[in-house]
């Protein structure tokens, strides 16, 4: 299991514990934890509605792919630490990381 924090749209932070041996994406864990993540495209990196900002633990994530960067660059707000939750795999590298929800929540 790996533990990381999620900051919601209101600025509230909660720890999340997730299995690191099932190949889940951060998007899947956020949806299962009932966070308001639209994930319209179902994790194909086509909609950017699972946009998160990495507030801590960015080094363990690896680099964003060109497809992911294309989606992020089309957003009205992109940060140096922006990522798509669907492209982040849950692994022990995420231990202690902090993610802020940025995607649409309607």
From TrEMBL:
<protein>
    <submittedName>
        <fullName>Ferredoxin</fullName>
    </submittedName>
</protein>
<keyword id="KW-0479">Metal-binding</keyword>
<dbReference type="InterPro" id="IPR001041">
    <property type="entry name" value="2Fe-2S_ferredoxin-type"/>
</dbReference>
<keyword id="KW-0001">2Fe-2S</keyword>
<dbReference type="GO" id="GO:0051537">
    <property type="term" value="F:2 iron, 2 sulfur cluster binding"/>
</dbReference>
<dbReference type="InterPro" id="IPR036010">
    <property type="entry name" value="2Fe-2S_ferredoxin-like_sf"/>
</dbReference>
<dbReference type="Pfam" id="PF00111">
    <property type="entry name" value="Fer2"/>
</dbReference>
<dbReference type="InterPro" id="IPR001055">
    <property type="entry name" value="Adrenodoxin-like"/>
</dbReference>
<dbReference type="GO" id="GO:0046872">
    <property type="term" value="F:metal ion binding"/>
</dbReference>
<dbReference type="GO" id="GO:0140647">
    <property type="term" value="P:P450-containing electron transport chain"/>
</dbReference>
<comment type="similarity">
    <text>Belongs to the adrenodoxin/putidaredoxin family.</text>
</comment>
<dbReference type="InterPro" id="IPR012675">
    <property type="entry name" value="Beta-grasp_dom_sf"/>
</dbReference>
<keyword id="KW-0408">Iron</keyword>
<keyword id="KW-0411">Iron-sulfur</keyword>
<feature type="domain" description="2Fe-2S ferredoxin-type">
    <location>
        <begin position="1"/>
        <end position="105"/>
    </location>
</feature>
<dbReference type="GO" id="GO:0009055">
    <property type="term" value="F:electron transfer activity"/>
</dbReference>
